[in-house]
């Protein structure tokens, strides 16, 4: 599996990477931070075309770093300091405030190293930062969704489908292996994940990898349990049928996002978390939108997946590989997995 984020092939036509950075912002006053109603078309036409071609697109500088992102970083810093205080620790090991908004997480690693459960308290708390919840429901997201899914789409904001991931260095348990977003959401198949980063992502941090164009295959079957990683549960325990063959048939890219960038992810595109082999946690935001009007969404009643207490195999039996005793072991070998 390639480990370079550089794209195979030409970088003048980078799959999924918007060269229209700033185009959307400059023709859209609300994106640039000037108040006013959200534009009906926050995305440049090139971004929309890339999304449909590749199954994802990185839009540089979609959010305003100071207005949209810094309040979330400040909120996360406050939570880290309060969790440290709860456990009798000073606000920061060195006693210094963050040198810049992007350095908000400095005292987190020390907390993680002292006690993994304390880091879990931070994870549970940060998704309740009001500035984050406001951004999740930002009106621009509905406009983007309509641009991608058509004027007739009726945007829904997936309950329980938003959060702040903290991908800690060296951890496998919560790393999302190759998957399609739909299986873990079960709202409607034509959904879109809005992914953004709170820290400048580096190659060592294990950026999200994409199989370029893989959304065109439609929804794929999965094994309901990961035999090789029994501690992975729920959506994390699903293993793509013929995983290695499937992902080998696409070029892969792993774009390095900066705070303020937005990655739009089709619910059907194959993607995975990289393995964080760096020395800093990778903090990222997710909000998931779906189309109430999609016939499959209507049929399943937008019921939700594991996090909503639903049994995936009951909702979509046709997407589950029947388990013969030896089938799971033969069907998927967990090879590189981005690690
Ligand atoms: O690692 C990430 O940031 C993305 C993981 C992912 O694909 C997911 O949570 O659905
Ligand atoms: Fe995902």
List the helices and strands and how they pair.
Blueprint: H1 23-26, H2 45-54, E1 56-59, H3 65-86, H4 106-114, H5 116-126, H6 130-136, H7 139-149, E2 155-157, E3 163-167, H8 181-185, E4 192-197, E5 209-211, E6 222-223, E7 239-240, H9 243-248, E8 252-253, E9 262-266, E10 271-272, E11 282-291, H10 295-300, H11 312-315, H12 327-331
Antiparallel strand pairs: 1-9, 2-11, 3-11, 4-9, 4-11, 5-8, 5-10, 6-7
Bound molecules: 2-oxoglutaric acid and fe (ii) ion.
2-oxoglutaric acid binds near residues 167, 271, 273 and 284.
Describe the protein in words.
This protein has two domains: 40-63 and 140-331, Sandwich (Jelly Rolls); 69-126, no CATH class. The protein has helices at 23-26, 45-54, 65-86, 106-114, 116-126, 130-136, 139-149, 181-185, 243-248, 295-300, 312-315, 327-331, and strands at residues 56-59, 155-157, 163-167, 192-197, 209-211, 222-223, 239-240, 252-253, 262-266, 271-272, 282-291. By secondary structure, it is of the alpha+beta class. The longest helix is centred in the first third of the chain and has 22 residues, at 65-86. The protein is built from twelve helices and eleven strands. The structure holds 2-oxoglutaric acid (AKG) and fe (ii) ion. 2-oxoglutaric acid (AKG) binds at residues 165, 167, 176, 181, 208, 271, 273, 284.
């Amino acid at each position: 599996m390639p480990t370079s984020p550089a794209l195979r092939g030409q970088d003048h036509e980078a799959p999924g990477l918007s060269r229209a950075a700033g185009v959307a912002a400059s023709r859209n006053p609300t994106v640039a931070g000037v108040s006013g109603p959200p534009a009906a078309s926050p995305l440049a036409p090139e971004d929309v075309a890339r999304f449909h071609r590749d199954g994802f697109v990185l839009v540089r500088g979609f959010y305003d770093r100071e207005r949209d992102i810094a309040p979330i970083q400040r909120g996360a810093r406050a939570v880290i300091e309060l969790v440290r205080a709860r456990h009798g620790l000073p606000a920061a090991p060195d006693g210094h405030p963050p040198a810049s908004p992007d350095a908000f997480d400095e005292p987190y690693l020390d907390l993680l190293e002292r006690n993994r459960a304390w880091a879990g308290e931070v994870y549970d708390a940060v998704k309740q930062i009001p500035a984050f919840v406001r951004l999740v429901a930002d009106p621009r997201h509905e406009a983007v969704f309509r641009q991608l899914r058509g004027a007739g789409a009726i945007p829904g904001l997936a309950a329980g489908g938003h959060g702040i991931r903290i991908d800690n260095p060296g951890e496998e348990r919560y790393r999302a292996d190759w998957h399609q977003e739909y299986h873990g959401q079960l709202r409607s198949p034509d959904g879109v994940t809005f992914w953004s980063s709170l820290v400048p992502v580096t190659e060592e941090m294990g950026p999200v990898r994409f199989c370029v164009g893989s959304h065109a295959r439609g929804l794929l079957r999965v094994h309901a349990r990961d035999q090789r990683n029994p501690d992975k549960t729920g959506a994390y325990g699903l293993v793509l049928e013929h995983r290695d063959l499937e992902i080998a048939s696409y070029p892969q890219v792993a774009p390095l996002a900066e705070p303020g960038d937005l990655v739009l992810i089709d619910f059907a595109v194959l993607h995975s978390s990289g393995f964080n082999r760096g020395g800093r946690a990778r903090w990222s935001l997710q909000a998931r939108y779906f189309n109430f009007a999609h016939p499959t969404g209507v049929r399943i009643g937008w019921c939700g997946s594991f996090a909503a207490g639903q049994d995936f195999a009951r909702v979509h039996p046709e997407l589950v590989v029947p388990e013969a005793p030896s089938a799971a072991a033969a069907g998927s070998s967990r090879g590189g997995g981005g690690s």
